[in-house]
Amino acid sequence: MGVKRLLLVEDDRSLAELVTFHFDRAGYAVTRTGDGEEALILAEETRPDLILLDWMIEGISGIEVCRRLRRRETTANVPIIMLTARGEEDDRIRGLETGADDYLTKPFSPKELIARASAVLRRVRPALAASALAYAGIEMDLTAHRVKRDGVTLQLGPTEYRLLRHFLENPGRVFSRQQLLDTVWPHSEEIELRTVDVHIRRLRLAMGEPDLIRTVRSAGYSLDAAN
Predict the structure, then answer these.
(1) d(CA 6, CA 209)
(2) Using CA atoms, how far apart are residues 82 and 132, in angstroms rounded to an integer?
(3) Nearest partner of 36 among 74, 55, 62, 70, judged by Cα
(4) What is the CATH number of the domain that holds 87?
(5) Residues 99 and 188 in one domain
(6) CA–CA separation, 214 vs 218, rounded Å?
(7) Do 156 and 163 touch, CB atoms closer than 8 A?
(8) Residues 18-27: contacts with CB within 8 Å, 24+ apart?
(9) Do both 84 and 163 map to the same domain?
(10) 119 and 160 in one domain?
């Protein structure tokens, strides 16, 4: 399983450090903040796979942050687990109705939180919890880092592998060059947009025919067997 991006929104520093420590050990790349406004910005910048969101935080409340994230197209489908000292049933229902995928009342054990996170990812983002991805004759073994097409092993460079993995996790979805840059390249601010085109060409060459990567004029690229 690859590294998953976690956005932790928690203003209790000691708790945030504890949660960060355990999720880091579990293979997550953790970005954290205790501020609601900053959380909304980081959710756009880091494109997390999962958000842990405390109800009582500085600035905007966690429940309002959740509501705004669900209204945005870019974060509408990101799994959210709410953390709170509020244990009343009405509060839990309110959190879930606002768009949270799960709800954990403090105090909780880090092991339970990680188990809940894994369960939410399996349910909401199954590709992230998988050990293999497959689409239209392409098979990617995430553990062995091997890729086959129709049973034939493909020779991919690290960047082409990351590109293909991103497409396999989101088949049929169109991504702009900037979106691919932000997701696939770790230091995208140093890289030009046309670099994406170069690696797309390399990926196409390695995959052979028929071409599964569709070029969408003025929009970007998509992995689409129906193109």
Answers:
(1) 37
(2) 29
(3) 62
(4) 3.40.50.2300
(5) no
(6) 12
(7) no
(8) 18/110, 19/52, 19/110, 19/113, 22/110, 22/111, 22/113, 22/114, 23/114, 23/117, 26/114, 27/1, 27/3
(9) no
(10) no
Whether 72 and 110 share a structural domain = yes
Write down which residue in 128, 157, 182 finishes a domain.
Answer: 128
Buried b (16+ CB within 10 A) or exposed e, 198-223: ebbeebbebbeeeebbbeeeeebbbb
- 145 and 169 in a single domain? The answer is yes
Q: For residue 10, what are the domain limits?
A: 4-128
- Structure-block tokens of residue 140: 């990617």
User: What SS3 class is residue 96?
Assistant: helix
Pair (103, 204) in one structural domain? no
Segments in 6-84 forming alpha helices (H): 13-25, 36-46, 62-71
Partner residues linked to 7 by β-bridges: 31, 51
pLDDT tens over the chain, length 227 residues: 456 899 999 999 999 999 999 998 888 889 999 999 999 999 998 889 999 999 888 788 898 999 999 888 888 888 999 888 766 667 667 767 788 888 888 888 888 898 888 888 877 766 666 677 888 899 988 877 889 999 999 999 889 999 999 998 888 889 999 889 888 886 666 778 889 999 999 999 999 999 999 999 888 999 988 76
Question: The domain spanning residue 168 has which CATH number?
Answer: 1.10.10.10
79 upstream amide cis, omega within 30 of 0 = no
Q: Under 8 Å CB-to-CB from 153, ≥6 apart: which residues?
A: 146, 147
65 and 124: one domain?
Answer: yes
